[in-house]
Amino acid sequence: MKLLLASAAGLLVISAAQGAEIKVLSGNGPRAAVRELCTQFEKRTGNKVDLRFGVNVDVKEKIEAGEHFDVVVGNPPIVDALIKDGAVVGPRADIGQAGLGVAVRAGAPKPDIATVDAFKRTLLAAKAVAFPGKGASGIYFVGLLDRMGIKGDMQGKLKPMPAEDTVEIVARGEADMVVVVATRIADVPGVDAVGPIPEELQTKIGFAAGLSASTKEPDAAKALIRFLTAPAAAATLRAKGVDPI
User: Is the dihedral of CA 235, 240, 242, 245 positive or negative?
Assistant: First the structure.
C-alpha cells in the first residue's frame, strides 16, 4: 500500500511539472554529461530545458547581475557562494567530480604522460599546449607548471583559450595537445583522449547543482536537480567522464 501511494505521489509530481520550461546555466566542465541528462529529462517529463554553458566565474557573474535562471550547475565553491549571496537555495546538490586529462588531435601519436617526468618531457616537447584560460582546471594547470618547475620554459607554448574553444582548437590542429578537466574532452569530434595526468599531480574538480531562489518553475527545477543526482544518472555520468557522488 505504501509503495502504491509513493508511486502515485511521484506520478503527480511529474504530471504537475510537465510542460514547464526551465533555464539552466552550467559551467563547461560537465558539458557532455549535463547535455545528455537534460535531453533524457526532457523525454521523460515533457519539460523543456534551455541549457546554456559558460565559464563558472562568468556564470556566477551573470547570476549576480540579475540574469534569470532556474537551475545552476557549477563547481561547488561557485554554488556555495551563490547560496551565501541568496541567489540559490541551499543546500547544494553534488553531482560528481573529475580529474584533469590530456587530449591530442584525432589520429596523432599519443604522447607519454604516464609519469611526472614523462608528462614534463611531453609538455616541454610540445609546440603549443591549450588550456582553459579562466576555468578551474586551467588555473590549477598553471599552478602545476610552477610546481613542476617548468612555468618559465612553457610561457611561449601556452595557449589560454575561451571555454568553448579549449578542446576544439586541438581538433583544428592549432595546438598539439590540451590539458583540461577530462569531462570537457568527451564528445568533442576530432580529438583523441590520451588519459589522465599522473596521479601525483592530479586534482579533482567537482560539479554540483543549485535551485534558483527566484525560479518560477520550482517543481520542474527541483525535479531536474533530482534527476541529475539520482543513482540512475550514474551510468550516463560515467560514460561522459564524471565520477558520480
Answer: negative
Number of domains in the chain: 2
Residues 80, 92 share a domain: yes
φ, ψ at 243 (rounded to 5°): -85, 110
Output the CA–CA distances (angstroms, integers) from residue 97 to 90, 100, 177, 208, in the order listed.
19, 10, 22, 9
State the maximum Cα–Cα separation within the chain, in Å, rounded to a whole number. 69
Quickly list DSSP for 137-151: HHHHHHHHHHHHT-H
pLDDT at 3: 38
- How large is the C-alpha radius of gyration of the chain? 20
Burial class (CB in 10 A: 0-12, 13-18, 19+), 90: middle
* Residues paired with 131 in a beta bridge: 160
Pair (89, 117) in one structural domain: no
pLDDT tops 80 at residue 17:
no
- pLDDT tens profile 187-239: 999 999 999 999 999 999 999 999 999 999 999 999 999 999 999 999 999 99
Q: Are residues 94 and 105 in the same domain?
A: no
Percent share of the chain, pLDDT over 70: 93
Considering the entire predicted model, what is its pTM?
0.86
Q: CA 96, CA 228: separation in Å to the nearest integer?
A: 10
